[in-house]
Structure formats: C-alpha cells, structure tokens
Q: What sequence folds into this?
C-alpha cells in the first residue's frame, strides 16, 4: 500500500465518502493488519498518533497534533 492509498482511505473514513480500495483477490492479505497508539507501539517520543501496519507488512505512522 502506498502513502496515497492510505491517505485516500483515511479521508474516506473521516468524511463518510466511499473508498475505492482497488481489486483484491480472494487470497489477498488483509488491507490493515494492526493499529496501535504510539504508546502501545513503544514510541515514547511524547507525541500522539497511530501506527498502522498493512497486510503486506508496511508500517505507517500518523501523527495527531493540534494547531492552536
């Protein structure tokens, strides 16, 4: 999965729009394998966010920051 594909999925989920996930075969890996907070993933950098692991083992980090 590419950064663009993950971004499109997250935008669709947050806006309620349909997401196009492309063609997937019957034996395909799951799209998202695991989601953990930074803390659960052992990233003690003081930030807030999520670690998303895809079915093909790619790991993405999504930081959540508030713009004051």
A:
């Amino acid at each position: 999965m590419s950064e663009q594909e993950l971004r499109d999925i997250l935008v669709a989920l947050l806006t309620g729009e349909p997401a196009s996930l492309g063609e997937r075969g019957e034996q395909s890996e799951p799209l998202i394998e695991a989601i953990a907070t930074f803390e659960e993933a052992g990233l003690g950098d003081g930030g807030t966010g999520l670690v998303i692991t895809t079915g093909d083992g790619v790991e993405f980090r999504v930081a959540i920051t508030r713009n004051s």
